[in-house]
Structures are given as structure tokens and as C-alpha cells.
Amino acid sequence: MNETILQAVNIQKYYGGRENLTKAVDRISFQVQKGEFLGIMGASGSGKTTLLNCISTIDTVTGGHIYVEGRDITKLKRAELAAFRGQKLGFIFQDFNLLDTLTARENIALPLSVSGTRPAEIERKVEHIAAALDISDVLGKFPYEMSGGQQQRVAAARAVVSDPAIILADEPTGSLDSGSSRMLLHLITDLNRRLGATILMVTHDAFTASCCRRILFIKDGKLFHELRRGEDNRAEFFTKILQVVSELGGEQDDFM
Length: 256
Ligand SMILES: Nc1ncnc2c1ncn2[C@@H]1O[C@H](COP(=O)(O)OP(=O)(O)O)[C@@H](O)[C@H]1O
Ligand SMILES: [Mg+2]
Description:
Strands 6-7-8-3-9-10 form a 6-stranded mixed beta sheet, sandwiched between helices. The protein has a 4-stranded antiparallel beta sheet with strand order 2-1-4-5, with helices on one face. It has helices at 48-55, 78-88, 104-114, 119-132, 148-160, 178-195, 206-209, 234-248; strands at 4-15, 22-33, 37-41, 63-68, 71-72, 89-92, 166-170, 199-202, 214-219, 222-228. It is built from 8 helices and 10 strands.
């Protein structure tokens, strides 16, 4: 059964004034269903980050509405914003942002501890996610005792442990070497498939995007095209993505 988790209606984000107006996001509307893995693609400067920042409430919109689980988050008061981000969003960063003085278990538990979840419940959730992400055996270790891949998984576990409505990732593989980047993509795919997480991932890279089930293409702040993976395997989907990228115009280098 489909359940709409995010509904963006006519989002606009303008920067500057009359003289130097930039329509970074120019009337974009779309919906995301629970459990979707959605990619957002476009050349550098097309408005991807701005769009994501509006959804995460890091930026305020110039116009339009964004509903998360039916609630218009563009209307939230300042005091409500932190609670919204803490309870409804998970972020995946390139650099893992783990706390050095906490064990993996404590790092993962952090969002739950902060929100006052009962210890037994915390324990249950941490164990469940650690098992799903194959990091049960490092729960007692500190970040410096773990491999890069294990640290990534711990950070991802922390992003999903509070069962956020949406997980946001902006160019998560942007500056990673190909090995780490493959690992992170595999992990994000796992979060989606094994844990049913709803993921919004911004990327300008066609290979990275080919992990997604659906992709929105953005050009000059506007929605340009949408692709669904359907029954395609990853290679077939990759080819279709490249085709849209070439129709989008601009430099191939911006995407590859
Ligand atoms: N804080 C800002 N002030 C003014 N212009 C901005 C700001 N942030 C982004 N922009 C402009 O908005 C457009 C979209 O930027 P951005 O969302 O970062 O694109 P992308 O993430 O696709 O590379 C660009 O033209 C950029 O220069
Ligand atoms: Mg960006």
C-alpha cells in the first residue's frame, strides 16, 4: 500500500534582489512514497542542494509548501524546527561525524538517548539495526578501532535508528575514492531494502544515481524529467540516465 510521506507543492527558493535574482528552485512539485529510494540529479548549480535544504528546513522557502507526513513544515516555528529535524529526518554525511569518545553502540544510540527513549527500547533498536547492517561485532569499539567502512555503517545506523520519515543525503559519495563510494552506495541501498528507509539522495553522478528506483532531473531550478527504474537492471537504468543527462545538455564533466 502506498503512503505519501513527502509532498512538495510548487517550491520556490529565490536568492538575491531585483537586480541579481537567482531562481535556485523554481516551482518544483513532487511526491515521495514511504520506502522509496529517490535520486535528484542535475548539473552543478541546477538547484539540487537548495531543494534538499528546503526539505530539511535548513533553508526557508520563498514560496510553496512542503508536507511531511501531512504536516506543512514551511509553517513550523523556530522552536519546532529542531524537534522536526531530530524526529523526522536522518542525514547521511560524507565524513561520518561520529563522536570519538563514544563507542559504536553509544554513537548509534545518541538520537534515542536525546529523545528520552527507555534504555531497554534503545538496546533493542540498536541491536536490530546493527544486525541488519552487519556491525553487531563492533558495537563495543570506538571509532578509531574501526575500519572506514564500519564507521560509515555506524553513522548510517545512527541516521536510521530513530526511524526517521526521510533520510537525506547530498552528494554522499562526492569526494570518496571509488572503493569507499561503492561501499557507501551499497549501504544506502541496504537501508532502503532491508530497513525500508525512505531515501532522498542528491547526486550529479549517473552511476551513483543508478542505485535509485526513481530519479528527478533538475535543470535551472525546474523539474526537467523523471525516470523510473521499473524492471531495468542497474546497467540498463544507467544507460537511460546517461541519455537524459545528454538531453539535459551542459558539460558531460558536470555529471561524470
Ligand atoms: N546562499 C546563496 N546565495 C545566493 N545564491 C545561492 C545561494 N545558494 C545557492 N545559490 C545559487 O543557487 C543556484 C543553485 O545552487 P545549488 O542549489 O547549490 O546547486 P547544486 O547543488 O545543484 O549544485 C546556483 O546558481 C547558486 O549559485
Ligand atoms: Mg549541491
